Amino acid sequence: MNKQIEETRLKLRKQMAPAISWYQQREPREQRTLQLLAVLIGAALIYWLIWQPSWQARQDARQRYLANQETLSWIENNAPAVRAARGGDKNVSDTLGANWVSEISGSVQTYGLTLRGFTPNGDRSVRIQMEDQPASQMLLWLHSLEQQGVALDTLEMSAGNQPGTASLRASLSR
Questions:
Q1: Burial degree of 107 (CB within 10 A; 0-12, 13-18, 19+)
Q2: Do the beta carbons of residue 139 and residue 111 sit within 8 Å?
């Protein structure tokens, strides 16, 4: 290992020899100017490669933290309403009829949601997609479908672009 280090040092010295020779041939005043220039370039590199990206990452983390705090606050403020809605749905006796796929499509609007994608898979299954919709409304809507006898086969939910929103991909079946 030490032999490799020494070989690398020798190669570096050979490559740097013309630059060192050129520097030593300069007058002392020019050498000081070059030293000052090297210090300025070093400071600029430290700023642009270390300090500025670190500062930006800190600011981004702070923004994410504030957005998450806002979402948490909203969830805590609306938790009683969601629990009340869940408790109120237990006595629902209406179920989806024979044309349940079109009824699912229509029921989305009653919760103030918009479907981005809707693909029936025969008469027993459907795939849905929503983007940047209120997360609480989506969960209430899915819960109401479950109360009406619709099974949630797959669910993929991710955070939306705004706090309190989410994107959803799901497969529903009967």
A1: middle
A2: no
Is-contact 164 71, C-beta < 8 A? Answer: yes
Q: Between 135-147 and 100-110, two packed helices, what is the crossing angle to 10 degrees? A: 140
Cβ contact 147:92 at 8 Å: yes
Which pairs count as long-range contacts for 151-158, CB under 8 Å and 24+ apart, including other chains? 153/125
pLDDT digits (tens, 9 = 90+) for 52-109: 999 999 999 999 999 999 888 888 877 776 676 666 544 433 455 557 767 777 788 8
Token couple for 138: 């989506």
Q: How far apart are CA 129 and CA 171, in angstroms?
A: 9
